[in-house]
Design goal:
The structure is a single chain. By secondary structure, the protein is mostly helical. It is about 60% helix and about 0% strand. A hairpin with a 2-residue loop joins strand 1 (about 150-155) and strand 2.
Length: about 325
């Protein structure tokens, strides 16, 4: 059976190293405003450590998304060519991705790589109970374990959950109502920031033409935030702090990357050109995180030349040199 102990050891080592660093700097071990900041900062900087390690993978993700976006016209052509033949379409698309060195799954790779970190932190925080007998597992000392077990955020233990029972919170010396309020607020923030991270990317890159890619985008935008509404009740407060911090880091990182490496605008196919002929081109979305557009100056169309009516049959020719309606001078 595959063991996850190496993940628990790694997460514990990073967490304890940061805690020792904050303790050495002089961050108070005792609660301030009902919060043990040394442990809260340790969780936050666990996120920073993981994201710095994964930054090269994030860059590859952006490059893969750019490659996928550039291939959209070719994907559209294949879909039109093999309409109704799904098996052939899949083969042709896989060959196209292989030839152009584009990987549709690369867009989800950073998220998948963070799953072990999430599971490791979830398991580590779930164990924080003063009555736990295995306090020295994964490199912890008894003193460190007891300190983390009593760590709180606004008087709510970081190992507490929205779904905790009164007996569980009584063992940690906490009030159940306080735990539910703190956990509930954090779950709402977690859902909102998860939605915003997906929305930010889609607003900048646009919806994919490939139905499979579009389905993944919809899952990321709506499915995951909705699932957190249910699963958030079983997440320890410390894990939610990790998730929210990770989302905020992602928002800032994506904003920087998307400004530095703006999305490609793929050329429109001839079919699309015919369909949109005679219509005014719409500018790309340039809104911020919430999709608000800045006011764009109206572009005036060039004034059309006035139409000159031709002479009626039998009418005398009109001298074009006449201006201002003045009659021509008679010669003689």
């Amino acid at each position: 059976m595959f063991s996850l102990d190496w993940i628990y050891y790694a997460i514990s080592w990073i967490l304890l190293t940061w805690h020792s660093a904050w303790d050495a700097i002089g961050v108070s071990v005792d609660a301030v405003i009902g919060t043990n900041w040394a442990w809260i900062l340790s969780i936050i900087f666990l996120v920073v450590t993981v994201r710095v390690i994964l930054f090269p993978v994030f860059v590859k993700q952006i490059k893969s998304q750019r490659a996928m976006q550039a291939l959209q016209p070719k994907v559209k052509e294949l879909q039109e060519k093999h309409k109704g033949d799904r098996e052939t379409l899949q083969k042709e698309m896989m060959e196209l991705y292989r030839k152009e060195k584009a990987n549709p799954l690369m867009g989800c790779l950073p998220m998948f790589l963070q799953i072990p970190v999430f599971l490791g932190l979830f398991h580590t925080l779930k164990r924080l109970n003063p009555g736990n007998q295995g306090k020295t597992l994964y490199g912890w000392t008894v003193e460190q374990f007891n300190s983390a077990s009593n760590a709180k955020l606004f008087s709510a233990p970081i190992s507490g959950k929205f779904g905790s029972t009164a007996a569980e919170m009584s063992a940690l010396g906490a009030n159940l109502t306080t735990v539910k309020i703190v956990a509930g607020v954090l779950v709402c923030i977690m859902i909102a920031t998860t939605y915003l991270t997906s929305r930010q990317m889609i607003l900048k890159t646009g919806w994919a033409e490939d139905p499979q890619q579009r389905m993944v985008q919809r899952l990321m935008l709506y499915g995951i935030p909705f699932s957190l509404l249910i699963s958030g009740a079983i997440f320890p407060i410390g894990v939610i702090i990790y998730w929210v911090t990770n989302n905020l880091f992602t928002l800032g990182q994506q904003q920087w990357v998307l400004r530095k490496f703006p999305p490609l605008v793929p050329p429109k196919s001839s079919t699309a050109g015919k369909a949109t002929a005679g219509k005014t081109a719409q500018p790309a979305k340039t809104g911020g995180l919430l999709g608000r557009k800045t006011a764009q100056p109206a572009v005036k169309a060039p004034a059309a030349a006035p139409k000159v009516a031709g002479p009626k049959p039998g009418a005398k020719p009109v001298n074009p040199k006449k201006t201002g309606g003045r009659p021509a001078k008679r010669q003689g």
